Amino acid sequence: MPMENELRRFLAERGACDAGFALLPDSGSQDCRYAVSVVFRLSDAVIDEIGDGPTPTYYQHYRAVNALIDRTLLEAGLFLQREGYRYIPVAASQSINDAEQHYAGRYSHRKAACLAGLGTIGKNSCFIHRQYGCRVRLGTLLTDCPFEWLKGPATFDPCGGCVKCVEACPAKAISGKSWAPGMPREGFFDPAACSAYMKTASRDTGRGAVCGLCLAVCPYNKIQPV
Ligand code: SF4
Ligand code: SF4
Q1: Which ligand is nearest to the CA of 126?
Q2: 225 within domain boundaries
Q3: How many folded domains does the chain comprise?
Q4: pTM of this prediction exceeds 0.85
Q5: What is the pLDDT of residues 60-103, one digit of tens each?
């Protein structure tokens, strides 16, 4: 517990709104099988401006928060290394298109955050934090530090019969099916359609970002009671 508390304080001082810990048997590393999942809130004011379409301000904000997450994970990893542990930061936004998966990073931030008990996944394929909703970005730090404070997956359904993101998505990437633990993303969401939309509709300003309409319309974006 002391290391978990140290890390939570360390991350909060750098702007994180929440952090959790999980054991990841499928981390892809032989020794770094624990994860610190870190949550940063996006700006409500920036997302509220999205309105009918994506904005250059949102694209820049998206990239800036990703950069902050990457820096924070590096600092947290260096902190762990000073304490004698090994670490691997998972990039905030990096697609590794290998033979087995497309439009996915080294490890799913959403999966790590779910396993750490921080929230769940909505119909829009976004992580939905139990308190702050889907207007958040995630980071994941793999480590061999043996955390003990493991809460396990959260169980709540933020979507119910809501289809606001389904109706708002210009790429028709959101099927309307609810996610369930173990369901692959492609079972309810089309990442290729989302990516293709960004490449055609916002080629000049939106490179490396997403349009954000499915975040902007989601009613699960007010601070929730915990
Ligand atoms: S980011 Fe835009 S295109 Fe992608 S799923 Fe959300 S609303 Fe659809
Ligand atoms: S807009 Fe509605 S259906 Fe879509 S993720 Fe948010 S709560 Fe779920």
Answers
A1: 2
A2: no
A3: 1
A4: yes
A5: 999 999 999 999 999 999 999 999 999 999 988 876 666 555 56
